[in-house]
Design a protein that fits this description.
alpha/beta; 12 helices; globular
């Protein structure tokens, strides 16, 4: 069997069209954008053109786009940067967050700040009112991911934003001058979901190039001009002083192109993948017994299928699938080497045994119906 890759939530291949626009900046146009000579000024223009392209997609001003070395760095700048600007305050996150949000939140909670973590409903969706109820007079930041990287559940950002706006109005009436910012880790969203920040109601947004057929270690943090945060890297003051260091120009150019393509293709690709998702579920149910699909079926990324196979061991299944040429995952690739069960599945109420009997399949642009049929056939043979 040919190789079947079903782990697009972990990494996507670099699109040829993205590599094409990156190539000149990996060779001839190697200049430092901060230099003063003509050739450097020309690559600086290319950098700002890429920034403007990203800003247009998000519906924001160019200076509000900060290029970063991926989603983890962007999330850390958002959380650590905001809370360091407001000592002794409070942050609200969910139990579903990626470790690049969860870990800094927990670190801050042990160093003078406080932290509340909201549990999801059984379908992996968050209740906007429960998030609002967790906000205190000292809350300065709420960070909720747009779509989960493990179970694919899409969160009601607009409803959460509306609840937070009510709290802001109440604060103004109570003469509480502390801001209440809303951040979202949207790393899994661009291929399938709307990114216009005014429609979503967010003040900060993280995007990751490695999830959208762009270069790894590329990304952005959108920071609304009203947001006050301190840098976590100090140096030459690039990126509004929030991310010092010579810009990785090729990656910035590649990220902008990848994001543009993702948004252009998202309607057609979402419809195509949703059909494959329904085929996947149908075949799984017909060939395997007692399988549970984790996460919401209605509010879900169209490329995601996360299942629990009672009585199975996902590590054994992963090795057996890999031997047959099929690459999938047990959960977040960032935690693949950890002994502990997924914190996302625990938040849904799954036991350790159930979590260790779970697999994630995530499809992408190269996935076909034949790939799905072959995968289910192989999985059923291995389970049998």
């Amino acid at each position: 069997m040919n190789n079947i890759y079903l782990d697009y939530a972990a990494a996507t291949p670099l699109d040829d069209r993205v590599f094409e626009v990156m190539s000149p900046y990996l060779s001839d146009k190697f200049y430092n954008p901060s230099a003063t000579y003509t050739a450097a000024k020309q690559v600086k223009k290319a950098l700002e053109s890429a920034r403007a392209s990203v800003a247009a997609i998000l519906g924001v001003k160019s200076p509000e786009i900060i290029f970063t070395a991926g989603g983890t760095e962007a999330n850390n700048i958002a959380l650590v940067g905001v809370l360091r600007a407001y000592p002794g305050t409070h942050i609200v996150t969910s139990a579903l967050e990626h470790d690049s949000v969860r870990a800094p939140a927990l670190a801050l909670a042990s160093n003078g700040w406080s932290h509340s973590e909201i549990l999801p409903q059984v379908d992996g969706r968050l209740d906007a009112k429960k998030i609002a109820e967790a906000v205190t007079d000292k809350t300065v930041l709420v960070s909720i991911m747009y779509a989960n990287n493990e179970i694919g559940s899409v969160q009601p950002l607009k409803q959460i934003a509306a609840e937070l706006e009510l709290i802001r109005k109440a604060r103004r009436q109570d003469k509480n001058s502390l801001p209440l910012y809303f951040h979202t880790d949207a790393a899994q969203a661009p291929n399938y979901l709307d990114l216009h920040v005014n429609r979503l109601g967010v003040d900060l947004m993280t995007l990751n190039g490695g999830k959208i057929y762009g270069p790894k270690q590329s990304g952005i943090l959108y920071v609304d001009s009203s947001v006050r945060l301190l840098p976590i890297l100090y140096g030459g003051g690039q990126e509004r002083g929030l991310r010092s260091g010579t810009e990785n120009l090729a990656s910035c150019i590649g990220f902008a192109k990848a994001l543009e393509m993702a948004q252009e293709l998202r309607f057609g690709e979402s419809a195509r993948l949703q059909k494959l998702q329904l085929l996947f579920i149908s075949l799984i149910n017909s060939k395997l017994r007692n399988v549970t699909v984790n996460g919401s079926l209605k509010f879900r990324l169209p490329n995601n299928l996360h299942i629990t196979l009672p009585g199975q061991d996902n590590e054994r299944l992963l090795f057996a699938m890999d031997e047959r040429g099929i690459q999938c995952a047990a959960g977040s690739a960032c935690n693949a080497s950890h002994e502990e069960s997924s914190h996302v599945l625990k938040a849904l109420g799954l036991t350790d045994k159930q979590a260790r009997a779970s697999l994630r399949f995530s499809c992408g642009r190269q996935t076909t119906a034949k790939n799905i049929q072959d995968t289910v056939q192989v999985l059923s043979e291995i389970v049998a």
